[in-house]
Design goal:
The structure holds 2 protein chains of 2 kinds.
Chain A (H helix, E strand, L loop, with lengths): L2 H9 L5 E5 L5 H10 L2 E6 L2 H9 L3 E4 L2 H4 L8 E7 L8 H11 E9 L4 H10 L23 H10 L3 E9 L2 E4 L5 H7 L2 E7 L1
Parallel strand pairs in A: 1-2, 1-4, 2-3, 4-5
Antiparallel strand pairs in A: 5-8, 6-7, 6-8
Chain B lengths: L7 E5 L3 E2 L5 E2 L2 E8 L9 E4 L26 E2 L4 E2 L4 E5 L30 H8 L1 H6 L4 E7 L1 H12 L4 E7 L7 H15 L17 H15 L2 H7 L19 H16 L2 H13 L20 E7 L7 H12 L4 E7 L13 H16 L2
Parallel strand pairs in B: 5-8, 5-9, 6-7, 9-10, 10-11, 11-12
Antiparallel strand pairs in B: 1-4, 2-3, 4-8
Helix pairs in contact in B: 1-3, 4-5, 4-8, 5-7
The chains are: A alpha/beta, B alpha/beta.
């Protein structure tokens, strides 16, 4: 399991109720179910991935976060997880609002467009950056709204959203982001992980 | 009252009050079982059949000598694995494969015909509930069914919220739509317009409204398929001829196919049963039973739901299945949902659709492991 998932799992206490939005093949869900006794649900748009989840014995709903989150009641989950998908929605702002409505807390991770390799790529190669967390070409990427850790930090601060924890991840190195080191983390982390609440 | 050999029958002594207000008692329910009930009695699956199905789910149906209606899904090592699970299925009341229905005799030894009480999906499941007592099963492992079978699944768990661990409604709806009712009415009109129907008393008049029933079946059969599926299978292909014959024989293969479907259907199905069962489907509106709030139907159950729809099913489309998912999510129920890609229309649940069968098998087997 990738390090990102380990960091997410560490943020969630045992025996909680969690919704994994865009749960893909259910790797994180299975880990949370087996290791933390989490009452876990998934929402996934891909039929193939839904089948993989069912084969793992996971409860998954085939659906689209932009349309299908509205069926869940307010604060019906302790945590809602959204891993590296926010930038792929047509309206990320709306999805974020929905995550924070449905979940008491939300864990959102974003691939950092401010990461030095991304900047380096664009600066010196002059083509759209391709990195480990951003593997697609400009013409086939699902990403519509790329942002940096700094962008997300400012965005969250500008609306009534409380940040409990923000973590920078670079390969296996996990570190805490705060206002004083934001510039540095924005340069050296390829992934930002935010625990937020509204 | 084993009227025909090969039909197992449970006589329900307990009176059953029907939705229409009448009470029936000492009535037969014809059933079949597959696999064996384990000592803990925790491996039973109650399967509900659709409009024209019966209790003979899999293997060779001893009455028709044809494959059971859910042979692709049920059997040894299949999705519903009879090496592992004990599968029970019964003919619905109102039906014509041994359960109490319009072809039975009333207490005065006169064939009911249309004097048989109008039954509902609710009546069907209340009748079938007696099978649990019969087998000494306290709690089923699962209930499953497609189409009208799915309606019975929903009604069953609503009526008996703690009687099944898992719940699998497939290609179904919580409320029959105007379009659904319209197609059923077309079928009923075809039957009653047949002069051999004789106001439902065809048996005593020694006639059979076979033509009307065949037309009803033909019309319904179209609704079970998708436009794409029909086009791919038949297109404009001609039936055993080089060119059009400028007449009204079956020039096209699709015509011949539908005529065949109609003709084999009348050999195995009773016209009055067709009227009664389609009526039960039309009356089905689970939300209405709970003042318009479908979620209320499931508020008392802790069962794990798995809802399945098919992309090309326009009779009970994905959205109607999703409405059930939404109702369950809004009360925090344990519900999974998948829409299976298939161009075989509503009939997909009866056919060899591997994605569907795999999902069904995985859901059941994984849930059983956690049992």
């Amino acid at each position: 399991m990738k390090n990102e998932f380990q960091v997410i799992a560490d943020l969630i206490e045992k025996n909680k109720k969690v919704l994994d939005v865009g749960c893909a093949d259910g790797t994180l869900m299975k880990f949370l179910k087996d290791n933390k006794n989490i009452n876990i649900r998934g929402l996934e748009i891909s039929k193939e991935k839904v089948q993989e989840c069912i084969a793992k014995g996971l409860t998954v709903i085939e659906g689209n976060a932009e349309k299908d989150l509205k069926q869940f009641p307010d604060k019906s989950f302790d945590y809602v997880v959204l891993s590296q998908t926010l930038q792929a929605f047509i309206n990320p702002e709306l999805v974020l609002d929905e995550l924070l409505r449905v979940g008491k807390k939300a864990i959102v991770t974003i691939p950092n467009f401010g990461y030095w390799k991304v900047r380096f790529h664009l600066l010196f190669k002059g083509t759209m950056p391709i990195t480990k967390t951003l593997p697609d070409e400009w013409y086939n990427t699902p990403n519509l709204h790329m942002c940096t850790i700094k962008d997300f930090f400012y965005f969250v601060n500008s609306r009534d959203i409380k940040i409990f924890k923000s973590l920078a991840l670079n390969n296996l190195n996990k570190s805490i982001i705060n206002e004083s080191n934001l510039g540095v983390k924005n340069l050296f982390a390829d992934l930002g992980i935010f625990l937020i609440e509204k | 009252m084993n009227t025909e050999k090969n039909i197992k029958t449970l006589i329900v002594k307990k009176p059953l009050k029907l939705d229409c207000g009448k009470t029936i008692k000492d009535f037969p329910i014809a059933y079949e079982t597959y696999g064996s009930l384990n000592s803990k009695k925790d491996n039973a699956i109650l399967v509900f059949h659709a409009l024209t199905g019966d209790q003979f789910v899999t293997g060779i149906n001893p009455i028709t000598n044809k494959e059971g209606w859910w042979s692709y899904a049920v059997g040894p090592d299949k999705a519903i694995d009879t090496n592992k699970y004990f599968v029970i299925c019964s003919n619905v009341i109102g039906g014509c494969m041994g359960s109490y229905g319009p072809s039975h005799k009333d207490p005065d030894q006169k064939i009911f015909g249309t004097n048989f009480p109008v039954i509902t999906i609710n009546d069907m499941v209340n009748a079938q509930y007696n099978l649990l007592d019969h087998f000494g099963i306290d709690k089923l492992f699962s209930i499953a069914g497609g189409s009208m079978g799915g309606m019975q699944v929903l009604q069953f768990i609503s009526n008996f919220p703690d009687k099944s661990k898992t719940v699998i409604p497939i290609a179904t709806t919580s409320s029959h739509s105007a379009q659904n009712i319209a197609f059923n009415e077309l079928g009923r009109q075809a039957i009653t317009a047949d002069s051999n129907w004789k106001d439902g008393n065809y048996t005593s008049n020694d006639t059979n409204p076979g033509k009307g029933l065949a037309v009803a079946r033909m019309a319904a059969h179209i609704t079970y398929l998708s436009k794409k599926g029909l086009q791919e299978k038949f297109g404009r292909k001609l039936q055993e001829r080089e060119d059009l014959k400028f007449g009204f024989d079956a020039d096209f293969q699709i015509e011949s196919y539908l005529r065949y479907q109609g003709s084999v259907f009348v050999d195995r199905f009773d016209a009055n049963s067709y009227l009664y069962i389609t009526r039960a489907m039309d009356y089905f509106d689970l939300a209405k039973q709970f003042r318009g709030n479908l979620s209320e139907a499931f508020i008392n159950t802790k069962a794990k739901f798995f809802i399945i729809s098919f992309t090309s099913d326009w009779l009970y489309p994905t959205q109607e299945n999703k409405d059930i998912v939404i109702a369950l999510n809004s009360i925090g129920a344990d519900v999974g949902f998948v829409e299976i890609k298939s161009d075989k229309g509503h009939d997909s649940f009866l056919l060899d659709v591997p994605d569907f069968l795999n999902a069904l098998k995985n859901f059941l087997d994984k849930s059983y492991e956690e049992n």
